[in-house]
Amino acid sequence: MILPIIGYGDPVLRKKGEDIPQDYPNLSELVANMFETMYNAYGVGLAAPQIGLAVRLFIIDTSPFADDEELSKEEQEQLSGFKKAFINPVITKEEGEEWGFNEGCLSIPDVREDVYRKERITIEYYDENFNKHTDVYDGLIARVIQHEYDHIEGILFTDRISTLKKKLIKKKLQNIMEGKTRPDYKMKFVAKKGR
């Protein structure tokens, strides 16, 4: 089932997510719905707060990046096969050089900015069968994980840009809050909630 994506300005996007218990109701259905919602919006990641749930869960499928001809064959293969759900994740280490990449967000349509993040992470998490993993990721996979991880910490990519850039996108953000933006996927806007 395709769920509406919560737009910028909704308080749920600022909440730190709570851990998911092993007996969380309909977890596999929720994960499936999140993937369907993400694919419908042509995203590569989606966090639970973006569908209105303040819990520690996000999903990723980096396959769309695999078409980038500037990447090596090895990088393309790695990206094309990377599809995962992360439950109750904790990034235990961020290391390497910071590098910039032009990020966007399904909750903040039509806004893209360069964000700098560390190149390598170590993350502990559970998969949807509640098997625990500790993995190290780098490059674009690490970046997508960091972006989605920020969501479950109540952080948006716009929090990681300069004050000047924040001023430049202020009107776009206001339009999202007022429901004046028209992405080609289902969204729920703050201004339209009470109606």
- What's the overall average pLDDT, rounded? 95
The biggest sheet amounts to: 5 strands, antiparallel
> What would CATH call the architecture?
Alpha-Beta Complex
Which stretches are low in confidence, meaning pLDDT under 50 for 5 or more residues running? none
Distance between the termini: 23 Å
Could you tell me the CATH topology label. Peptide Deformylase
Order of helix and strand elements from N to C terminus: EHEEHEEEHHE
Dominant shape: globular
Question: Helix content range of the residues, please?
Answer: 25-40%
Radius of gyration: 16 Å
The total strand number stands at 7
Amount of beta strand: 25-35%
- Broad structural category: alpha+beta
Provide the CATH superfamily. Answer: Peptide deformylase
What's the CATH C level? Alpha Beta
Strand order of the largest sheet: 2-3-4-5-6
Number of domains: 1
* Number of helices, where a helix is a run of at least 4 consecutive DSSP H or I residues: 4
Family: Belongs to the polypeptide deformylase family.
Pfam families: Pep_deformylase
GO molecular function, one term: metal ion binding
Organism: Flavobacterium beibuense F44-8
